[in-house]
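Forwarding these from the shared drive since the link keeps breaking.
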Amino acid sequence: MNEHQPQASPGGRPFPPSRRGADVMFGGVYGTVLASGLLAALDQEGGDFTPYYDASWVLVTAATAGLAHGYSHHMTTHPQGSVGHRWRVLTRALWHEWPMIAAALPTVLLLVLAGLTAWDPYGVTAVGLGLNTALLFAWGAGVAVRVGYRLASALLIGLADATIGLAIIAANALIK
């Protein structure tokens, strides 16, 4: 079966076409940008550094954003069919949001590590934003190669994604 043709559900009704490359790219970039923004915002100069609390908020926010995106995507393509079919399609739409949550996990793990080692907040934020910028590059370039871009174009896409991370770093420096 062609990847771009709708797949049939057990009841014979088609599921929406697979967007695996687009879903991974969107979720990876969006989750990483979300985690970067939260990391920068949760680190307040002069405030108490609460890495476990911050880690939980990054994870909860990524999961909530994934659920909201999956649900809204489902509602805008609201398929016809039985209630059972609509629930299966909704479940599938929500499952496709896993890259957004997965992309936030490096930041969550970094914050947990910071809590275990009493790492200073400035260092955690700097390393986290740098790591996430590198991950943005990897998400962009990796998915671009996976969906068929040539290496040079994929590297430019990765660079464009990394620019988002650099913008967050610049905004963090200017705001604080």
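-- next protein --
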Amino acid sequence: MLPPNKRQKQARVLRDFRKVHRLTGALLFVFFFLISITGLLLGWKKHSGGIILAKTYKGASTNLKDWLPVDSLTTNAFAAIRDSLGEDKTLTLDRIDMRPDKGTVKFLFTEEYLGVQLDATTGQLLHLETRRADFIENLHDGSILDRWLGVDSGALKVIYSTIMGVALLIFTITGFWLWYGPKRMKQDSPAVPVKPAGPKPPRAVRPT
């Protein structure tokens, strides 16, 4: 049997955890919801039928010796965007993704999450896309804040990830204790003594 002061302490801890759990969930509900939805979408991106992430198209050759120089492919990628969206389109190349197993080179641009897939051998356009998966990933990890505000160091992403990581840890710990705490208190509570059953009173017999 627990001493009364220790039992009161456990009850107080349980109340405090309940308050922290409720407050964390209320303040960060939108962010938890956003992280869960974007995480689910990212998990399904390769199985979305090209809606979230376009398939990688195949080029003419997977032999690197047959590929055009990178500068020529880059010129073709810029030309493919401008031919489709207009000559005055401002473009900033974000990264180049080479796929030797497909014979394809992907050019990813900062503006509007545009992407171009070129045949690495011929330089022809295979696919022009909007990288929805990149947008969802930026939402998921908070890097979209750096993108919107023009912070090149990625500081806002680090701050956001730290806050959400710590909050999720607190949410998990308090949630576990809200489940385990009452069970522990119930186990430590004194057992209720069972009174022994006495002899049954004689049954009255009705006269005939």
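The chain has a mean pLDDT of 87. The radius of gyration is 32 Å.

- D.
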